[in-house]
Design a protein that fits this description.
The chain has 255 residues and is an alpha/beta fold. The protein is built from 8 helices and 10 strands. InterPro entries: AAA+_ATPase, ABC_transporter-like_ATP-bd, ABC_transporter-like_CS, ABC_transpr_LolD-like, MacB-like_ATP-bd, P-loop_NTPase. Residues 242-255 have a biased composition (Low complexity).
Length: 255
Amino acid sequence: MSRAPAIEAVDVRRSYDLGAEQVHALRGVSFTVSDGEYAAIIGPSGSGKSTLMHLLGCLDRPTSGTLRVDGRDVAALSDAELARLRNEAIGFVFQAFQLLSRSSALDNVALPLLYRGVPRAERRERAEAALRAVNLGHRLGHRPTQMSGGEQQRVAIARALVGEPRILLADEPTGNLDSRNGAEVMRILEELNAVSGVAVVLVTHDAEVAARARRQVRVRDGLVELDTAAANPAQEPVPDPARGGRVAAAGEERA
Ligand SMILES: Nc1ncnc2c1ncn2[C@@H]1O[C@H](COP(=O)(O)OP(=O)(O)O)[C@@H](O)[C@H]1O
Ligand SMILES: [Mg+2]
Protein backbone atom coordinates (compact mmCIF):
# COMPACT_ATOMS: atom_id res chain seq x y z
CA MET A 1 0.00 0.00 0.00
CA SER A 2 1.42 3.37 -0.92
CA ARG A 3 1.57 5.92 1.84
CA ALA A 4 -0.69 8.99 1.73
CA PRO A 5 1.07 12.29 0.96
CA ALA A 6 2.44 14.21 3.94
CA ILE A 7 -0.12 16.98 3.29
CA GLU A 8 -3.12 17.08 0.99
CA ALA A 9 -5.28 20.23 0.86
CA VAL A 10 -8.38 20.33 -1.34
CA ASP A 11 -10.32 23.61 -1.65
CA VAL A 12 -9.43 24.60 1.90
CA ARG A 13 -11.14 27.72 3.21
CA ARG A 14 -10.82 29.55 6.49
CA SER A 15 -12.98 32.50 7.48
CA TYR A 16 -12.82 34.45 10.70
CA ASP A 17 -16.14 35.55 12.12
CA LEU A 18 -15.80 39.00 13.67
CA GLY A 19 -19.47 39.41 14.53
CA ALA A 20 -20.57 42.09 12.06
CA GLU A 21 -17.89 41.13 9.55
CA GLN A 22 -16.42 37.97 8.03
CA VAL A 23 -12.78 37.86 7.01
CA HIS A 24 -12.11 35.29 4.28
CA ALA A 25 -8.45 34.60 4.98
CA LEU A 26 -8.27 31.50 2.72
CA ARG A 27 -10.69 31.20 -0.18
CA GLY A 28 -10.06 27.74 -1.63
CA VAL A 29 -6.50 26.48 -1.47
CA SER A 30 -5.41 23.14 -2.96
CA PHE A 31 -1.99 21.53 -3.02
CA THR A 32 -0.06 18.44 -2.04
CA VAL A 33 3.21 18.15 -0.17
CA SER A 34 5.15 14.91 -0.59
CA ASP A 35 7.79 13.39 1.66
CA GLY A 36 11.17 15.08 1.37
CA GLU A 37 9.88 18.22 -0.35
CA TYR A 38 11.23 21.68 0.40
CA ALA A 39 8.70 24.41 -0.35
CA ALA A 40 8.58 28.14 0.33
CA ILE A 41 5.27 29.94 0.74
CA ILE A 42 5.50 33.56 -0.30
CA GLY A 43 3.01 36.41 -0.69
CA PRO A 44 2.18 39.88 0.61
CA SER A 45 1.31 40.62 4.21
CA GLY A 46 -2.30 39.66 5.01
CA SER A 47 -2.54 37.19 2.09
CA GLY A 48 -3.23 34.22 4.39
CA LYS A 49 0.19 32.62 4.84
CA SER A 50 0.06 32.30 8.63
CA THR A 51 -3.55 31.11 8.51
CA LEU A 52 -2.44 28.40 6.09
CA MET A 53 0.53 27.40 8.25
CA HIS A 54 -1.69 27.12 11.32
CA LEU A 55 -4.00 24.80 9.40
CA LEU A 56 -1.13 22.67 8.06
CA GLY A 57 0.25 22.51 11.59
CA CYS A 58 -3.08 21.29 13.01
CA LEU A 59 -3.24 24.33 15.29
CA ASP A 60 -6.57 25.18 13.64
CA ARG A 61 -9.24 23.57 11.44
CA PRO A 62 -10.55 24.65 8.01
CA THR A 63 -13.97 26.29 7.78
CA SER A 64 -14.57 24.06 4.74
CA GLY A 65 -12.67 21.89 2.30
CA THR A 66 -10.55 18.84 3.03
CA LEU A 67 -7.19 18.85 4.74
CA ARG A 68 -5.34 15.58 5.24
CA VAL A 69 -2.17 15.62 7.29
CA ASP A 70 -0.20 12.37 7.38
CA GLY A 71 -3.26 10.79 5.73
CA ARG A 72 -5.69 11.88 8.46
CA ASP A 73 -8.66 14.12 7.67
CA VAL A 74 -8.27 16.82 10.32
CA ALA A 75 -12.00 17.66 10.31
CA ALA A 76 -12.77 14.13 11.53
CA LEU A 77 -10.43 14.29 14.52
CA SER A 78 -11.27 15.23 18.10
CA ASP A 79 -9.16 17.89 19.82
CA ALA A 80 -7.16 15.17 21.57
CA GLU A 81 -6.57 13.27 18.33
CA LEU A 82 -5.53 16.49 16.60
CA ALA A 83 -3.07 17.27 19.39
CA ARG A 84 -1.62 13.80 19.06
CA LEU A 85 -1.29 14.10 15.27
CA ARG A 86 0.46 17.44 15.80
CA ASN A 87 2.83 15.95 18.32
CA GLU A 88 3.73 12.95 16.17
CA ALA A 89 3.67 14.19 12.58
CA ILE A 90 4.59 17.87 12.78
CA GLY A 91 7.37 20.10 13.97
CA PHE A 92 6.67 23.84 14.08
CA VAL A 93 9.22 26.65 14.08
CA PHE A 94 7.99 30.19 14.82
CA GLN A 95 9.45 33.56 13.93
CA ALA A 96 9.83 34.50 17.61
CA PHE A 97 11.28 31.10 18.68
CA GLN A 98 8.64 30.50 21.43
CA LEU A 99 11.01 28.80 23.84
CA LEU A 100 10.39 28.45 27.58
CA SER A 101 12.64 31.18 28.96
CA ARG A 102 13.29 29.55 32.33
CA SER A 103 14.15 26.12 30.91
CA SER A 104 17.49 24.95 29.54
CA ALA A 105 17.97 24.21 25.86
CA LEU A 106 17.91 20.51 26.73
CA ASP A 107 14.59 20.76 28.62
CA ASN A 108 13.02 22.87 25.85
CA VAL A 109 13.95 20.28 23.24
CA ALA A 110 12.87 17.31 25.39
CA LEU A 111 9.39 18.75 26.05
CA PRO A 112 7.56 17.21 23.04
CA LEU A 113 8.86 13.80 24.14
CA LEU A 114 7.53 14.37 27.66
CA TYR A 115 4.04 14.94 26.19
CA ARG A 116 4.52 11.70 24.29
CA GLY A 117 5.35 9.74 27.43
CA VAL A 118 8.97 8.95 26.53
CA PRO A 119 11.00 7.92 29.63
CA ARG A 120 13.38 10.50 31.10
CA ALA A 121 16.71 8.94 30.13
CA GLU A 122 15.60 8.49 26.52
CA ARG A 123 14.23 12.05 26.43
CA ARG A 124 17.61 13.37 27.49
CA GLU A 125 19.51 11.25 25.01
CA ARG A 126 17.32 12.20 22.07
CA ALA A 127 17.22 15.91 23.01
CA GLU A 128 21.01 15.93 23.22
CA ALA A 129 21.31 14.29 19.79
CA ALA A 130 18.84 16.81 18.30
CA LEU A 131 20.86 19.71 19.76
CA ARG A 132 24.07 18.24 18.37
CA ALA A 133 22.40 18.00 14.95
CA VAL A 134 21.94 21.80 14.99
CA ASN A 135 25.52 22.34 16.23
CA LEU A 136 24.48 23.18 19.80
CA GLY A 137 26.01 20.24 21.62
CA HIS A 138 27.97 22.78 23.70
CA ARG A 139 24.87 24.71 24.84
CA LEU A 140 22.75 22.01 26.52
CA GLY A 141 22.41 23.80 29.87
CA HIS A 142 21.99 27.33 28.50
CA ARG A 143 18.68 29.12 28.89
CA PRO A 144 17.24 31.09 25.95
CA THR A 145 18.26 34.44 27.53
CA GLN A 146 21.87 33.21 27.54
CA MET A 147 21.88 32.50 23.80
CA SER A 148 21.94 34.56 20.58
CA GLY A 149 18.85 34.75 18.36
CA GLY A 150 20.41 32.34 15.90
CA GLU A 151 21.15 29.85 18.67
CA GLN A 152 17.61 30.17 20.05
CA GLN A 153 16.14 29.44 16.64
CA ARG A 154 18.40 26.39 16.33
CA VAL A 155 17.08 25.18 19.72
CA ALA A 156 13.56 25.65 18.33
CA ILE A 157 14.49 23.61 15.25
CA ALA A 158 15.89 20.84 17.47
CA ARG A 159 12.63 20.89 19.46
CA ALA A 160 10.62 20.66 16.22
CA LEU A 161 12.64 17.67 15.01
CA VAL A 162 13.29 15.70 18.20
CA GLY A 163 10.15 13.62 17.67
CA GLU A 164 11.17 12.76 14.07
CA PRO A 165 8.11 14.32 12.42
CA ARG A 166 7.18 13.80 8.78
CA ILE A 167 6.65 17.54 8.25
CA LEU A 168 8.53 20.60 9.44
CA LEU A 169 6.63 23.90 9.23
CA ALA A 170 8.36 27.23 9.74
CA ASP A 171 6.64 30.63 9.69
CA GLU A 172 9.26 33.31 8.91
CA PRO A 173 12.06 31.36 10.67
CA THR A 174 14.66 34.00 9.75
CA GLY A 175 12.38 37.02 10.35
CA ASN A 176 13.97 37.95 13.69
CA LEU A 177 17.56 37.16 12.71
CA ASP A 178 20.38 39.13 11.11
CA SER A 179 21.54 37.88 7.72
CA ARG A 180 24.43 35.78 9.05
CA ASN A 181 22.30 33.92 11.61
CA GLY A 182 19.47 33.67 9.08
CA ALA A 183 21.80 32.01 6.58
CA GLU A 184 23.01 29.55 9.24
CA VAL A 185 19.41 28.61 10.14
CA MET A 186 18.59 28.08 6.44
CA ARG A 187 21.69 25.94 5.96
CA ILE A 188 20.61 23.74 8.88
CA LEU A 189 17.04 23.39 7.58
CA GLU A 190 18.37 22.38 4.15
CA GLU A 191 20.77 19.88 5.65
CA LEU A 192 18.09 18.29 7.88
CA ASN A 193 15.74 18.05 4.88
CA ALA A 194 18.46 16.35 2.83
CA VAL A 195 19.60 13.97 5.58
CA SER A 196 16.31 12.92 7.21
CA GLY A 197 13.91 13.55 4.32
CA VAL A 198 11.56 15.57 6.53
CA ALA A 199 9.25 17.65 4.30
CA VAL A 200 9.92 21.36 4.90
CA VAL A 201 7.31 24.06 4.29
CA LEU A 202 8.36 27.55 5.25
CA VAL A 203 6.89 31.03 4.95
CA THR A 204 9.29 33.80 4.08
CA HIS A 205 9.43 37.44 3.01
CA ASP A 206 13.06 37.01 2.03
CA ALA A 207 13.45 36.57 -1.75
CA GLU A 208 16.82 34.88 -1.29
CA VAL A 209 15.40 32.32 1.13
CA ALA A 210 12.46 31.65 -1.20
CA ALA A 211 14.72 31.25 -4.23
CA ARG A 212 16.76 28.58 -2.43
CA ALA A 213 13.69 26.38 -1.94
CA ARG A 214 13.02 23.76 -4.64
CA ARG A 215 9.38 24.80 -4.82
CA GLN A 216 7.64 28.16 -4.46
CA VAL A 217 3.96 28.59 -3.63
CA ARG A 218 2.73 32.17 -3.97
CA VAL A 219 -0.39 33.15 -2.05
CA ARG A 220 -2.45 36.28 -2.71
CA ASP A 221 -5.82 37.28 -1.24
CA GLY A 222 -6.36 33.82 0.22
CA LEU A 223 -5.65 31.92 -3.01
CA VAL A 224 -2.64 30.12 -4.47
CA GLU A 225 -1.54 32.37 -7.31
CA LEU A 226 1.46 30.32 -8.41
CA ASP A 227 2.83 26.89 -7.51
CA THR A 228 6.07 25.97 -9.25
CA ALA A 229 5.44 22.26 -8.55
CA ALA A 230 2.20 22.46 -10.55
CA ALA A 231 4.03 24.37 -13.31
CA ASN A 232 6.85 21.82 -13.56
CA PRO A 233 6.84 20.74 -17.24
CA ALA A 234 8.00 17.22 -16.29
CA GLN A 235 4.68 16.71 -14.49
CA GLU A 236 2.55 18.27 -17.22
CA PRO A 237 0.78 15.94 -19.69
CA VAL A 238 2.75 15.99 -22.93
CA PRO A 239 0.83 16.52 -26.20
CA ASP A 240 1.12 13.39 -28.36
CA PRO A 241 1.97 14.14 -32.04
CA ALA A 242 0.41 10.78 -33.05
CA ARG A 243 -2.91 12.15 -31.77
CA GLY A 244 -2.59 15.45 -33.59
CA GLY A 245 -1.16 17.02 -30.46
CA ARG A 246 -4.06 15.89 -28.32
CA VAL A 247 -3.21 15.26 -24.68
CA ALA A 248 -4.07 11.73 -23.57
CA ALA A 249 -6.85 11.67 -20.96
CA ALA A 250 -6.06 10.22 -17.55
CA GLY A 251 -6.09 6.43 -17.70
CA GLU A 252 -6.22 6.41 -21.52
CA GLU A 253 -3.75 4.00 -23.14
CA ARG A 254 -1.22 5.29 -25.61
CA ALA A 255 -1.66 3.53 -29.01
N1 LIG B 1 -7.60 35.43 14.39
C1 LIG B 1 -8.01 36.24 13.40
N2 LIG B 1 -9.20 36.88 13.47
C2 LIG B 1 -9.63 37.66 12.46
N3 LIG B 1 -8.93 37.89 11.33
C3 LIG B 1 -7.74 37.28 11.20
C4 LIG B 1 -7.21 36.42 12.21
N4 LIG B 1 -6.01 35.96 11.80
C5 LIG B 1 -5.80 36.50 10.57
N5 LIG B 1 -6.84 37.29 10.21
C6 LIG B 1 -6.99 38.02 8.93
O1 LIG B 1 -6.87 37.07 7.87
C7 LIG B 1 -6.09 37.61 6.80
C8 LIG B 1 -4.85 36.73 6.59
O2 LIG B 1 -3.99 36.87 7.71
P1 LIG B 1 -2.64 36.04 7.88
O3 LIG B 1 -2.91 34.62 7.60
O4 LIG B 1 -2.04 36.38 9.20
O5 LIG B 1 -1.74 36.65 6.69
P2 LIG B 1 -0.17 36.66 6.46
O6 LIG B 1 0.46 35.68 7.37
O7 LIG B 1 -0.01 36.32 5.01
O8 LIG B 1 0.28 38.06 6.73
C9 LIG B 1 -5.77 39.04 7.19
O9 LIG B 1 -6.76 39.85 6.60
C10 LIG B 1 -5.89 39.04 8.69
O10 LIG B 1 -6.24 40.31 9.16
MG1 LIG C 1 2.02 35.90 8.81
